[in-house]
Each structure stands twice: as structure tokens, then as C-alpha cells.
Amino acid sequence: MQWTRAEIGALGEDLAVEHLGGLGLTVLVRNWRCRYGELDIVAVDNDSGAVVFVEVKTRTGDGFGGLAEAVTHAKVRRLRRLAGLWLQQQDRHWPAVRIDVIRVRIGRSRTPEISHLRGVG
What family does this belong to (predicted)? Predict the structure, then answer.
């Protein structure tokens, strides 16, 4: 069966949400969009109270490099801008803000590999 990029991305985001829930984070919103782009997942870290903006990168192989290569300085700047726009629309305030990246590798093995990089920017 051949999957589309959208289907692979959606599967990766579903797996990332499960991963975050297992770590004690509560997802507030998925796929928030504005004219400047999209935030994949916005969650709250229930231990620290921080709002966490999560970028999900789903890959079916290693052809595009690892997690560090997936998030450039320009990407982090864009995520900060989007996070700021999202925060401006909220009535609630959080004690801290964090940007995380989750890489989901869906390969030949039956179990997807999940890498989670906290506090990238």
C-alpha cells in the first residue's frame, strides 16, 4: 500500500500526540493555522505548566537527515513567530513557553521510532 505525504504526516502527528500524552502533556490544539503557517501541536506540560509548541517531522527513511537537520534556525524563527501569534489570541497565560520537535520514523520495522527534542528555541 502506498501512502500519501498527508497520510504519513497525519499518522506521525497521531503517534506524537500519543507520545506526549504518555509524558503527561495535554494537547490543547492540533494543526492551528494562520496566514503565516501552521503549528502542528500545542500542548501543556502538566508538570511545569509550560505551553509547548511541538513541530512533528515524520519520515519513512533517513534520506532527509536526522532530527537536528530537520529543524533549521529559520524554522525555529518561524515557529517562534507562530507561537507568539497563537499566544496573542489566548486569554490564559503560562509560566513558560517551550518549542519541542518530535521525529517519527515509520520504517520497515513494525514499531515506529520516536525521537523527542525538548527546548529547541
Answer: Belongs to the UPF0102 family.
